[in-house]
Amino acid sequence: xxxxxxxxxxxxxxxxxxxxxxxxxxxxxxxxxxxxxxxxxxxxxxxxxxxxxxxxxxxxxxxxxxxxxxxxxxxxxxxxxxxxxxxxxxxxxxxxxxxxxxxxxxxxxxxxxxxxxxxxxxxxxxxxxxxxxxxxxxxxxxxxxxxxxxxxxxxxxxxxxxxxxxxxxxxxxxxxxxxxxxxxxxxxxxxxxxxxxxxxxxxxxxxxxxxxxxxxxxxxxxxxxxxxxxxxxxxxxxxxxxxxxxxxxxxxxxxxxxxxxxxxxxxxxxxxxxxxxxxxxxxxxxxxxxxxxxxxxxxxxxxxxxxxxxxxxxxxxxxxxxxxxxxxxxxxxxxxxxxxxxxxxxxxxxxxxxxxxxxxxxxxxxxxxxxxxxxxxxxxxxxxxxxxxxxxxxxxxxxxxxxxxxxxxxxxxxxxxxxxxxxxxxxxxxxxxxxxxxxxxxxxxxxxxxxxxxxxxxxxxxxxxxxxxxxxxxx
Length: 475
What we know:
The protein has 475 residues and is mainly alpha-helical. It has one domain (2-465). The protein is 85% helix and 0% strand. The chain has helices at 2-32, 35-54, 59-66, 73-97, 99-107, 113-138, 142-166, 171-192, 194-197, 206-240, 243-256, 260-280, 284-307, 311-315, 323-330, 332-343, 345-349, 355-378, 380-405, 412-430, 435-451, 453-474. The longest helix is centred in the middle third of the chain and has 35 residues, at 206-240. The radius of gyration is 22 Å and the shape is globular.
């Protein structure tokens, strides 16, 4: 238990640090930019998100799957990076050739071609960043992984702030600051890990690449569909509303991303740990305990954020007041993603990654249907409800297929908690903003603590044991 807690803390440092730097950047950008300008910035973030989901071609996921089974780690890394790097040349050429069109789609003007060129160049750096950090993560070097993540976010923050101070405070200034900061951070990461990426005696392993492709390529299709699912909210807002609504929605999404502290920290710690447990044939009760702890922790944090919603206007600015009604439903993104990391292991262990395609399609259909219904009527609020509901569908799909392939465990408590969170999020939008709302939130926190009382008791017992052991050692 001590080793697991230490590992989780080490990985969490980077997630907490990166999240704090992101949170610092939010009020800075919203202070300088109106919701309309901020909305244009979000279109760039949309493009960058889409790139991140497709440029690895699933070889990053296949790399983690092979890591503990392939002896020569450097050769595995080199072969895993080969196909994404080669394919990125074609992608960069296409982006540069269509720069004017891409600029028009993103920013409603064709004059920002240079931003598209920089975004295209950043693809190479993003590939190196992803595979270097994956190697460090799979080696369980939690502290190094955390420090590098903080470094990259820090360079983005510094460059963005400098650009806003030195140049005109408009959306394109934030875009340039973000891209250049990302590239600088990745350059430092690469220089610090040259031994991983320096190619001296590269040996092409065709059977390995074929295995990586067989595992990874179905993920590519699923990931592409999932990326559409991720960006569909902003596309609907862009089409049915205006840049102002998009800016408010994006600001709310940034606030909700505070929960990503848990999501990213847990994922970085859990993936290598779950593979280790699977190799060691750990009993199913260990997986269920982790799943229950995660659901309990992140749902309580969800509700604590909801209690603090009035601070959103203070953090952003009065122009973004609508964000406090939007962000609870957007919190379902990190909530469902985090918990599903513990319930989708059947898909991972069975190597049936094609099921991710079905899951992503299910979530995409829900997202499109609800956005068509709600976004034209409610604007950013309707989009937020659609997004939160779609991520719940995503969780349900992952869990359903996983439990059919694996021994599995009961998730009834999870669904009860999800239902409670959904109801209180609806009340936050349509109910009265009075003491009643705060009473309801506190009541639901008490109910969740009661639902998971056995888990809390077990954790407290473990803590007491650890304290007794330490006292015995000192004595």
